[in-house]
Amino acid sequence: MSKNVPNISESEWEIMKVLWDNSPRTANEVVSSLQGKADWKPKTIRTLLDRLTKKKVVGVNKEQRIYTFYPLYAEEECQRAETRSFIDRIYGGTMKSMLVQFMEEETLSEEDMEELRQILDKKTSE
Predict the structure, then answer these.
(1) How far, in Å, CA of 94 to CA of 96, rounded?
(2) Is the domain of 85 the same as that of 99?
(3) Does pTM top 0.85 for this prediction?
């Protein structure tokens, strides 16, 4: 996947989660999905939808009387781009530094460590 995923703000992630969960959705459906989760006014949610549309992260179906919105990127693509951006900003682009710090800071169960070993073994055999 070589698509360049545009940067998504924390608030925009909340909108995207709703659309990844189920789409296409109308703006009103997005608003009602977020009620109780975020203390935003409907106008704020519509502004975020417009911003995501302008960034070309969300598409709009205008063929019906009521517009519906849908994601243009898979959640995994956005997570991968966000991870890369984080590693570049915080760890100078070196994943090893991040992993070492994570492993030193976190208490990993034997099961977690075994799963990580299997992932590394699989990666080295590819």
Answers:
(1) 5
(2) no
(3) no
